[in-house]
Amino acid sequence: MANIHEGNLGIPGREAFAYEGKEHLQQHHLYVCPQDSLELKRHLAFRDLSQNASRGCR
Q1: How many other C-beta atoms can be found within 10 angstroms of the C-beta atom of residue 55?
Q2: Which of 4-8, 20-24, 30-34 has the lowest mean pLDDT?
Q3: Strands 15-20 and 2-7, bridge-based pairing
Q4: What's the rounded Cα separation, in Å, for the pair 5 and 31?
């Protein structure tokens, strides 16, 4: 099993990696962003919004 670099997939400020080997076990995607990137801030804002929304549904 390995993560294969796919480039930024059209989104500057983010590098994507695909799971290779036993793809049927893939549970997530891996993205790498510089600590100060706008793309990282966007990912974290989405995470926070999703977590807060799911808490309100319980």
Answers
A1: 8
A2: 20-24
A3: antiparallel
A4: 10
